[in-house]
Every structure is written in C-alpha cells, then in structure tokens.
Amino acid sequence: MRHRSSEACFPPAARAALLGRIVSGEHISDVCVDLGISVNRARSYGRHAPAWGRALALRAGCDPDLEHGTARAYRCRCPHCWAAKAARR
Question: Taking a C-beta distance cutoff of 8 angstroms, is the pair 14, 38 a contact?
Fold first, then answer.
C-alpha cells in the first residue's frame, strides 16, 4: 500500500524530469519547487526504490566546487567521496 501511495505522490514522469534537470545543471531544490514536490519527498523515495536513491545521490550529491575522493569533501554524496570518508573512519 505504501509503495502505491509513494508512486502517486512522486510519479515516474516527475522522477525522470527531476533527474534530467539535475543532470543539466539545475539545483535540486529549484527543480523540486517547479515540480511541486519537496526535496525530502524526492530524497526519501529512495527508501522505496533503492535504484532511484543511488541515481539521485550520484547526480544531486556531487558538488562541482569540491575536490572529489577526499575525506574533506564532507558535503558530497558521490561514491568516490563516500569511499574516502569510510576509509578515514
């Protein structure tokens, strides 16, 4: 039941639009406002669809101003930075 309600609140067309616009360089919060969803809804959908969560983290989590793959890139969620943070712990 929960999965169906999450699909209704965040339909596939909105998910595709969100990822496409993030890839084109728009910020996730701006895109979510335009689509009429909250950033929390977009990010929390990953609990129901792990593949979506990974795709969003790869696209929305990378800050182009950071040096990726270092433990100092604490704001980044890309796999390279996560691995560096895990190795440091």
Answer: no
